[in-house]
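Recall that a protein's primary structure is simply its ordered list of amino acids. Everything else, from secondary elements to tertiary packing, is in principle encoded there. The following example makes that idea concrete.
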Amino acid sequence: MRKIHPPPQTAHSWTDFFIHIATIVLGLLIAIGLEQVVERIHEHYELRVAREALDREFQSNRANLAADERNWLEVLARLKNNLLVLQFIREHPGTPQTPTAKLWTPR
């Protein structure tokens, strides 16, 4: 924080006083404006980083969803095959097992 030093001579008139106040106000407005510009640049950088992170997460989620879908289809195929085998066993009790049973595969 910078200190504001008073001018070497005191203000002798209202005009000098208002010029002094206007100079202080103008300096403070410039400082606040510069601070806001720096904050805006920082927010812009954070927004860019957040968007990149969200894009990476979105791509990762899409890949995970595709892998999960493939796994689900494989499990579904195995379950349907198991149901076909159980149905065959129920309809034909006492039939010896053979490797020629029909397997269901996903399209």
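The longest helix spans residues 14-91. The CA atoms of residues 6 and 87 lie 98 Å apart.
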